[in-house]
Amino acid sequence: MSVVSATPKPRKRVIDYIIKCTNSVGELLLLYFVLIVISGVAFAWIEHRSIGEGLWWAVVTTTTTGYGDLSPVTPAGRLMGAATMLISLLIVLPLLIGHIAARLIEDHDAFTHEEQELLKAEIIALRADLAKLAASRASES
Length: 141
Known about the structure:
By secondary structure, the chain is an all-alpha fold. It has two domains: 10-107, Helix Hairpins (Orthogonal Bundle), CATH 1.10.287; 111-141. Helices cover 74% and strands 0% of the residues. Helix 2 runs antiparallel to helix 4 (75-105). The N and C termini lie far apart (70 Å).
């Protein structure tokens, strides 16, 4: 018999933290900004460029524009560039676009849970009234 630990595994804690960091558009924009800053500074350090050039490269890379004016030439720089592209394209941008699309598509006229429960109660009451009416008509005939 195995004993289940009460403390969550480190991997689960990281996943839970990432999910918490993606609950709003503002948090995703902050995550995107952090990705740009970290990638830009890393690019500048690895490729021996200025911070401004590194940030420019990070913005161009994460937005998938790719002007080609700056690109990593060292193996470490290329690995860091690939990681930046994959994180941006497969995680941050889809989450950000999804949140924005969900906000635009959200049905503001949808019934709330309380309104749905009230409608259900009214339907039940109407059915009971109809049943009484049908029973009274049946007894009259």
